[in-house]
Structure formats: structure tokens, C-alpha cells
Amino acid sequence: MERTRTNQASSHVGERVQLAGWMHNWRDMGKFGFLVLRDGAGTFQAVLDDATEIEKLKGLQYESVLQIEGIVAPEPRAPAGAELHDCKVEVIAPVLEPLPFEINKKELKAGLDVFLNYAPVGLRHLEKRALFRVSAEIMAGYREYLRQQDFVEIQTPKIVGSATESGANVFRIDYFGRPAYLAQSPQFYKQIMVGVFERVFEIGPVFRAEKHSTSRHTNEYVSLDFEMGFITDHTDVMAMLTGVMRHIVHRLKESRARELELLGIRVPSVPDAIPSLRLPDAQQLIFERFGEDCRGEPDLAPQHESWLCQYAEQELGSELLFITHYPTSKRPFYTYPDDQDPSLTKGFDLLLRGCEIVTGGQRIHRYEQLRENAVKWDVNPEDIDGYLQAFRYGMPPHGGCAIGLERLVMQLAGLPNLREATLFPRDLDRLSP
Amino acid sequence: MERTRTNQASSHVGERVQLAGWMHNWRDMGKFGFLVLRDGAGTFQAVLDDATEIEKLKGLQYESVLQIEGIVAPEPRAPAGAELHDCKVEVIAPVLEPLPFEINKKELKAGLDVFLNYAPVGLRHLEKRALFRVSAEIMAGYREYLRQQDFVEIQTPKIVGSATESGANVFRIDYFGRPAYLAQSPQFYKQIMVGVFERVFEIGPVFRAEKHSTSRHTNEYVSLDFEMGFITDHTDVMAMLTGVMRHIVHRLKESRARELELLGIRVPSVPDAIPSLRLPDAQQLIFERFGEDCRGEPDLAPQHESWLCQYAEQELGSELLFITHYPTSKRPFYTYPDDQDPSLTKGFDLLLRGCEIVTGGQRIHRYEQLRENAVKWDVNPEDIDGYLQAFRYGMPPHGGCAIGLERLVMQLAGLPNLREATLFPRDLDRLSP
């Protein structure tokens, strides 16, 4: 008999079907019992009232893998409006060890560390898997929108010959006896590929050997990068990103309504033009409105981002806020300086609900200027020769940005720690599972 | 004025448009000249007949970035059926250095090594970029099909705490003073995630520290992985893969007909059921048909794969061929043994036009059997504790496979070396660009 998935079962009322999945719950009432079977699609309830069948579950722990045949009967009190009767059970893979924590309750009670140690089983919790279906939908929406805008997907190397953006937070590899490094971002390669396709995007892992441990950082994360040529300035990139965000939110509402509801996620409405503040103006605003003087500081602290988003939501009606014109001295050497004030850049961050989720900007496209800047920033031009090559052979004005996938999911779902939005996080203490 | 892309220009006959792109070609005829401008969409010809405008190109090398305004005029002899007249040129980024090789000719004449050294400019060649648009379309087709089949996309860590599949070909990282490794495949994680979603896929980099240098191997490549639960055996995986391949070919024909034509790619027709041979039978066939006795060998050599594909094409009418039942001793410890003959596995390879492009199979899903096998294969169960955890807590029968993206592109396009199908290849000698 062909297997029916749980979400299809209630459309087979009166028929005999075969389900298969994990023993999500089992309430033994003596002569009968309620078994909840979970598969990739959802859950379905089976009523066992035959002693021989009930006997088969003796000694089995939750998460045992079962196959159940039975007749679908209407039952208004069952969550699916139907349940399985007259059941035959087959144990496909017994579980004999009690679970480290309960994964069949609405709320997962395990502390973060215990959860991460047992992620292979913990991720089976209905809310957890809903969260990572949201992640998957964000990636799909991102790609779909950019493909529509004629961006080409690329996959660039993660092993690189020289530490590029910053020597400080790079992982070293032994590459056949030579040193090599893990890419901190696809930045150089996506810029090179603007020379080929004009518009490119990539979704892939990036690696940062940050030695500090915060709830907003991990050492490997998923970066949603795009880069586009023939722009006027950074605002073209911001406009494209706004379109991306609108489409992602649209896709989530269309395709993941059930998961959003389960997780209590209210997606932000993305305005046609997300409000934008220059960093010096944002710092002035913080001083006037919140009384803290961070004017002249090169970056925003988490508290500042939080205040600015509070302001944007209350006064501008937006949960998203662009901050532009970060200081040139604090951005990478390839960042385009502002024409009016070269001490500031045509760089931006996008904040969502109090946390930065995107960094981007216009890049320098003229070879001489880029090379000079590299030297000024203590980057040896010989080390980045392949990158500079693209500029020697003609690059248009261009820019791009990178969304941190886990940051976006964390902010959407209101999670307190980035690790909760990461399938198998890597940090100072954690290399497995 | 808003920029028009080259592929849209001929639909603006009689209008003044602005194009922008790279100086792909320039034929100076004295009082006038033909300029071919290339952008991300294609090329378009502009006729320059004003001395002031022609003067602006003096000293400029190919690949200079230009903006050209002009009036679109019908011209049957021009490739697009129209060309640009009355042109005003603006130089956006001049190129002053001659190119390392010609990239505006139909054929790229550079040797592989020179090409790879200058990939940032070489990839701009029209055939090269067509090839990587084919790559992008394969990824899109792969994801689209699997999403339709209810697979969930995952992104798993590339830094792992222990060398898993084989200690021999793994790259070591210094992870905050501790040893860590680059993932040789997402194998363990995609299996773990079968416990969560039943069906998962991932497209991402994998790393193999193979010390030999062949035209079929590089040290970092893009792996198209999927894994599915509740299968009967490996043939369910093969059937899913067949569907994937059919869809990829369909997408290529629908969306990349122009690129296929430019590259002279004839896509294979994928039969409803790709023919399949057991390894021992395949070796017997080689012996009888081609006179070489490789019976009893644990794997196929490139020549054997070539002969088998020759046979399959001539006798079975298929350019694709499954080989199944590789020896248990030569497959990883998690491979499911054949029920009839446990010295063979429920593992398979898929060959295309004489080269393996996919490896897959059914996996062991019972905890005790898997743990015992690990020990037998000299893998310390403690080192793979996170992986085994999924099995302690119930795993269904499952299997999956991995397509090598560059292998597939190489075979489709008939390229002699995998490096030609890789954007920025990594091998024993090459870490940049």
C-alpha cells in the first residue's frame, strides 16, 4: 500500500490508508490509547484499541518510527477533523532511550545549551522545524526576486589564498602545507563577477573567527549576498534591497502562513521606501531624544540601534530603518567615499526591530583609487592581485549588500539568541553536533 | 535618461536611448567606426561618425566601461537588426592595459593555466559566461523540482569537529587553538535532518584534500545534495534523481536555449527510467564486449565508465546509466548492505557520457547496526556522537545522493577539464584568484 502523508489523511475518510512517521505522543488509557504520529508534513491521531497492537508499543520511547495502517474516520474532536481507526502497527525503528527533553509539548523547555547538545532530536519539535521552514522560504524568496531582476546565481570559493577584509578574524587552513584562509565573505568574488554578469547573487556560508561571544554573533553563518553594476549610488542598492525584503515578506505570508502563526511571527510591513538616516543625524537624534551623546562615534552600539528603531516605528511607522554614511575610517578599503564629505561613506546598514540585519554600500570601481586605498588600509595589493585585476580591466560603478540569514530569522521571530536561528551553530565553544 | 539594456535596444527603433557596458570591440574605419558594447544581457553595435566622439576612444583598451547615448536605427546587417546612430560617448572607467588574451573573439584561445590566472577578465568571454548561466539554471532547476516534491532546503555547517567520512582527504583548520575540519560533504547533517523534515536538500561547497591532480577533480566543489526518508530502498532515490535530471534538462531547454546553442550543448534525453546495471554485471559486460577483465575490482576506472556509457548509448539508447551494488568494503560505513549479498551495497553511481556525476544510495538507519559498522570501519563512535544521536532517537529507512555541479556541467558541455566548469578552481597549485 502506498504511504499517505499526515496532511492528506483527512481527505481519505472511509478509506484504509498507511501512515508512517515518528511516535510523537502516546496516551495509554488501558484498553485503548491515542497515538499521535508525526511525519514531515504534520501530525495525525490514531486510536489503538486492539491489545495486540497496543502491546507492540510496550517499552518504546517517543520518536520510535512507526508505520500504521487504519481506516480514516471523521472525528470532530480530533485536531485534523478525522482520526485513524482499526489500526495495525509496525515498528520500523524502535527508540529505547528516553529523550533528553520533551519535544512533543507546545513549548520546548530545554535550556539553550542542552538544546544545542541535542539539536538532532530537538529540531524535530514542531516550532523548531517551523522556524527552519521560514529560513528556507526566505532563501527561496530572495533568489526568486533577484532572478526576476536578472541577477545570476554564482558559487564562489570558500578557501582563499589571502586574508582579505581583515586579518584579525580569519580562520587559517593547512592547504597542502601552505597557509590558506576561510572566506569572510564572497565580497571580492561577487565584485569580480559584476564584471561578468553585471548582477550576481550568492547564498552561502561565511566564516568569522570572532573571539568574542555574544548573542548576536556566531563564527559561521549564512550570507545572502548580491552585487549590482551600473548604479548611480548606494541608494540604488538600497532600493533593490527594499524590493528583496518586500518579496521575502510576501512569500512568507503566501507560503508559510501556518508556520508564522505557530511561531507567533508578525512580519514587518515593508514600505515602498524604507526610511533612512545619515549616521551623524541618527546620533544627533539619539542625543536629543534619548539623552545619550554618541555623536562622533564610528558605529552604533546595540542600544543605539534599538533606540533608532523605536523612533522609526513610533514616528515614521516603519520597523525597518536604513542608516547611511558610516565613517570611511571604519569601513573596508573598497567602500566608496561620499562626494560631499569624503570622511563618510556611501555605505549603509539596514536595521530591523533594533538589530542590524544587512550591511552594504557602493564600492570604489576605479583601479587607481582602489589600489591606493588598499595601501592606505595596510592591505598589500599583491595579496589581492586577482581582485584588483577585475578593476584593471574595467569595472562599472557598483554596489551590493549582504543579509545575515540567521539575523533576519532571529529578528522576525523575536529570538533572544542567534544560535536559536541557526541549525547547528558554531561558536567559541561549539564545534558539534 | 534611464539606461536601456542591449537586449531591449532594438525594440526602441527611432528613439534616443542610453546604453552602458564594456567596449567589447572597436573597428576604427577612419572617419567612422563600429563599436560593439557588451553588457550583462548581450551586445549591441554603435556607429561612431563624429570625430569628437571617436577621439574619446583614443588610447582606450578593450573592456573600458562606456556609456553611449544614441538613436536606434534599423539595420538588417547588424546582428540585432538595429544599431545605434548619432552617438555620444562617455567613458565611465578607462582600461589602459592590453588584455592578457582576446575575449571578443568567438573562440577563446588562452591555454587553461593562463585563462585561470586571468579568470576575472576571461570569464567575461561570451561563451564562458553562457556556461555559468547554465550552471545557475541547473541549480535553479534542482531546487525547483525538489521543492515541488516537498523537500526543505537546509544550510549545514562547513566547519566540523571531527573528520568523518575519511581522515585522509580532509582539510584541517585552526579553530581557536583546537583542530577542526572542513566538511567533505553535508552527509551526516542531511541525514540528521531527515529526522526533522523527512526530505531535505542543500547546495553548497564541499572540500576534499585530494593530493592527486586529475582533470576530473578539484579540492573544492559545489555539491547538490538531497536526502529522503521512508524509502523502500535505493531505487526510490534513483527514481527521485531521475525526476531531478529530467527537470533540469527541461529547465535548460526552456530558459537557456540561447546559451545551449552558443555552447553547442546537446542536452541528453532523460528516459522515464534510466537503465541500470549491477557493478558485477557491468564488469562482466566490459569483459565480454571490450575484452578487459576488471571483474572483482571494487570500482570502475574512467575507461570502464566510458565503455559502459558507450554500451548504454548504443544498445539501450541512453546517455545516462546507473551502476549499482558497489562493494560494501569500498563504500562508507553508513551504506546499506544488499539484502541478498551483504558484500555488496544498495549504493549507486550515475554516469553521464562516460563520467560519474552522482553518487548515492540507501543508508543504514538502525542505531546498533550503524554503530557496529562505524567501529568496523575504524571510526570512533564518540567522534560522531552528534550524528549517531539522530539514530538513537529514531530514523526511518532513508537514502540520498549528491550531484557534482561542475562534473555535470563539464559532461553537458563536453569540456576536457573540470576546472573549465568551475568559476575559480582550487587545486594543489591554485588558491587564487
Tags for this model:
homodimer, 433 residues, alpha+beta, OB fold (Dihydrolipoamide Acetyltransferase, E2P), BirA Bifunctional Protein, domain 2, five-stranded antiparallel β-sheet, 16 strands, 32% helix
Q: How is this structure best described in words?
A:
The first copy, chain A, has helices at residues 6-9, 51-56, 112-117, 119-122, 126-148, 187-197, 234-255, 257-263, 279-290, 302-316, 367-376, 385-392, 405-413, and strands at 16-28, 33-38, 43-48, 65-74, 82-93, 152-153, 159-160, 172-175, 178-182, 199-207, 220-229, 276-278, 320-324, 347-352, 355-363, 398-404. The first copy, chain A, is of the alpha+beta class. Chain A folds into two domains: 6-93, Nucleic acid-binding proteins (OB fold (Dihydrolipoamide Acetyltransferase, E2P)), CATH 2.40.50.140; 126-421, 2-Layer Sandwich (BirA Bifunctional Protein, domain 2), CATH 3.30.930. The relative contact order of chain A is 0.10. The mean pLDDT of chain A is 96. Chains A and B meet through β1, α4, α5, β6 and β7 of A and β1, α4, α5, β6 and β7 of B. β8 of chain A pairs antiparallel with β8 (172-175) of chain B.
